[in-house]
From TrEMBL:
Coiled coil: none annotated. The keyword Transmembrane helix applies. Residues 21-124 form the Polysaccharide chain length determinant N-terminal domain. It is a multi-pass membrane protein. The chain crosses the membrane at residues 37-56, 292-312. GO terms for molecular function: protein tyrosine kinase activity. It comes from the Bacteria. Residues 275-315 form the Tyrosine-protein kinase G-rich domain. Signal peptide: none annotated. It comes from Shewanella piezotolerans (strain WP3 / JCM 13877). This is Lipopolysaccharide biosynthesis. GO terms for cellular component: plasma membrane. It holds the Pfam family Wzz. Keywords: Cell membrane, Membrane, Transmembrane, Transmembrane helix.
Amino acid sequence: MTRQIQKNYTEAQFQQSMTDDEIDLRELFSVVWQGKWAVIAITTVFAISSVIFAILQPNIYKSEALLAPASEEQAGGLGALAGQFGGLASMAGINLGGGAGVDNTQMAIEVIKSRQFTSQFIEKHNILANLMAVEKWNLHDNSLVYDPEVYDEVNDTWVREVKAPYKPKPSMQEAYKEFKDVVSINLVKDTGMVTISVEHLSPTIAQQWVTWLIEDINQVMKERDVAEANRSREFLNKQIAQTNVADIRTVLYKLIEEQAKTIMFAEVRDEYVFKTVDPALIPEEKSKPMRALLCVLGTLAGGILGTMFVLMRRFSRN
């Protein structure tokens, strides 16, 4: 009998709890319904604001090139000789190196991302104004409009107002941060292909920068390898002069020959590190902003904030 009473009491408590929850839920909907005009008004304001904001956003164009790593057969002979005769040369106190080393493609990607390469690229092509001061792009005459509060195009002077230690003319550190945001370099591990893309207000500039990046990185990597090969030749010639062992001299001459082949290979190939599979084109369609998505998100945010405002106002009064 006692257990039955306890069971009935527990069921009654559960039903009362469910009733309270239902009442709370009904009250919640009732509060929102009573404040529906406030919710509609706030949602409308946010919707209109998001539409205006989306319209005012300038079009951004993206140009992209697909690259394939150039073959590295010029390094194969040297590596093979170093591995084959490294022990023999070490007997004469000569270290030929050898080993895996750093992948040339990955090295080139990291060079492009470096501050030094970026600074040299900006100064070489004189693109600081196009990077830091462009306000909009005119389609009808393919011209750029610069922000008059940042850059005076007529007098070619920077007029922006900044606090120390910054100066009116942006530093290379500032330019590097901006350049890093508009340039993207990706390595597809499955295929080994590399993509380089640039986003800009002007589709012509986006395409031009991608082309320049490919040309410059090939030239920089070529110059690095040629300089290293020349240093290696000087070192090997010194080693030849210091040894009288015929076998060692034969190995060193073969290594010098490989260095000469490396230099020759660099001189005859323009696409030294990357071969262009699909060149960059002037894009005809914008890549962003996604104006429809901005409008939808703005409207949803207005509806959520409007509902929260009505609920907070009601419960604060209570």
